[in-house]
Design brief:
This protein is about 55% helix and about 15% strand. The chain has about 475 residues and is an alpha+beta fold. The chain is rod-shaped, with a radius of gyration of 53 Å.
Length: about 475
């Protein structure tokens, strides 16, 4: 379980943080390039504007000789006010520094591309890079000086980029810090969120393993308020239903085992007695009757189990034809009248004289329902020594009712009596699936199978079938 949960957290963080990290890195890169362009372009534009203005002013005075040019350049550098920020250089036509606000550079040849371009093209030129002499990062702009249409030298402004680069570095670091703080916030918020998902999933997984290991009915404590709550409710409901199903299955196995043991014991006992050959004619007749009765009981139970098996795997079907449901019901009544009379139970049938039209159905399955109803009435309501049966024809349906005068069904058990294997507080013999089979048969006939308590005591079972159904 643990690697899976870790894998879920890992995938979640990769999917959530990965795109944000990519966007943050792209944002920092774009910001860095943008602010660098802003600084460098601004500095370059400022230097080019200043160089152009200065050369235009310088050229307006005119120069008649080299000494005059040198004197003007020297005077210009001496009066230069921004020497703390810029270096002003005057260069000869071959690129040598004649005069500079930094006197130590005079006589040197910087050798940068801006000087070469300005002297060769007669247009201002720009350079950004390392100073060939010192290796320092600089930016320079060279503007040509002309006399009589001929380039005689150049005025060059030079500034160090160290300060600008430091400011750029600080800006980039600040943007990276902001991006990291944002990523940290997203990371921790995602960790909190995913913990609220992974922890209950881990808890549910552990409980699911316990359920699969046989701990049916175990519950997960549910203190959530979202979809996780619905998931846990479903798990808890599933666990409870599995526990109930296992309980019912155990009770069913115990009940069926008991129900099979009783008739088999009777059959074996009487079989051995008859096999001994010393029984009287009366005992022989009685023994054979018991064997036949218990054999029928076993046959009925096996048929119920087979019907239940067919219900479970979807093989429970009907053989439909046009049938006389009134005749089927009355034949069952007449058959049971003689059998119940032997047990001291009176079965009364109220013949209303109604003529029920033929309807579509399975006569064998409906007779099975009627027999089961009457058999249950004799077992559970036989203490009343009376059973009433009636058939009623309504406009769109036919209703067959069987009522006993026994103790009835406890109210709290009524909703469950048609469930599979349910026997409630009843001590009567049976598998507990007969009513479930009856309910399925009537459902397949598009009818209703109703079980209620009757007024004055006893229970009443109603079979409602639609006409033309």
């Amino acid at each position: 379980m643990k690697p899976r949960i870790q894998g879920l957290r890992k995938r979640w963080l990769i999917n959530a943080i990965g795109p944000i990290l990519l966007v943050a890195a792209l944002g920092v890169a774009v910001f860095s390039v943008g602010i660098a362009n802003y600084y460098y372009t601004g500095m370059r534009t400022g230097l080019e504007t200043r160089a152009k203005e200065s050369t235009d002013a310088f050229n307006t005075y005119g120069m008649n000789s080299y000494n005059e040019f040198y004197q003007m350049a020297y005077s210009y550098t001496e009066s230069f006010k921004d020497r703390d920020q810029l270096e002003l250089q005057f260069l000869s036509s071959n690129g040598m520094i004649l005069v500079s606000t930094y006197g130590i550079t005079a006589g040197l040849s910087p050798g940068t591309q801006d000087i070469t371009d300005a002297l060769s093209t007669g247009e201002p030129a720009y350079y950004e890079g390392a100073d060939p002499a010192t290796g320092q990062s600089i930016m320079s702009v060279s503007a040509p000086l002309q006399f009589n249409g001929r380039v005689v030298g150049a005025m060059r402004y030079v500034t160090s980029l160290d300060r600008v680069n430091r400011e750029l570095l600080l800006s980039v670091l600040f943007s990276v810090l902001v991006a990291l703080i944002a990523l940290a916030m997203v990371y921790f918020s995602n960790m909190v969120f995913i913990s609220n998902v992974v922890e209950p999933v881990a808890e549910v997984t552990a409980v699911a393993k316990r359920i699969s290991g046989g701990s049916y009915g175990v519950q997960v404590e549910n203190h959530y308020q979202d979809e996780i709550r619905d998931l846990i409710d479903s798990i808890n409901d599933m666990s409870a239903k599995i526990a109930q199903s296992e309980k019912v299955k155990s009770e069913f196995i115990s009940s069926v085992s008991h129900e099979l043991r009783t008739p088999l014991t009777a059959i074996n006992g009487w079989g051995e007695t008859l096999l001994a050959g010393d029984s009287s004619s009366e005992e022989l007749h009685r023994g054979i009757g018991i064997i036949l009765k218990e054999s029928r009981r076993l046959t009925s139970m096996v048929e119920e189990l087979l019907d239940f098996s067919r219900m479970q795997d979807g093989r429970f079907t009907l053989h439909v034809s046009q049938i006389d449901v009134q005749a089927e019901f009355e034949d069952t009544i007449y058959t049971y009248q003689a059998l119940l009379r032997q047990e001291g139970i009176e079965l009364r049938y109220d013949d209303t004289g109604a003529e029920v039209p033929l309807l579509s159905g399975d006569s064998e399955r409906l007779r099975q329902v009627f027999c089961n109803i009457l058999d249950n009435a004799s077992k559970h309501g036989g203490a009343g020594r009376r059973i009433d049966a009636a058939l009623t024809l309504n406009e769109n349906e036919v209703v067959m009712r069987v009522r006993d005068y026994g103790p009835g069904i406890p109210e709290e058990e009524l909703p469950f009596v048609k469930q599979k294997f349910y026997k409630g507080s009843s001590k009567a013999r049976g598998s507990g699936i007969g009513l479930a089979v009856c309910d399925e048969i009537i459902r397949l006939h598009n009818g209703e199978f109703l079980i209620e308590n009757a007024e004055g005591g006893g229970a009443v079972v109603s079979v409602v079938l639609p006409l033309g159904g």
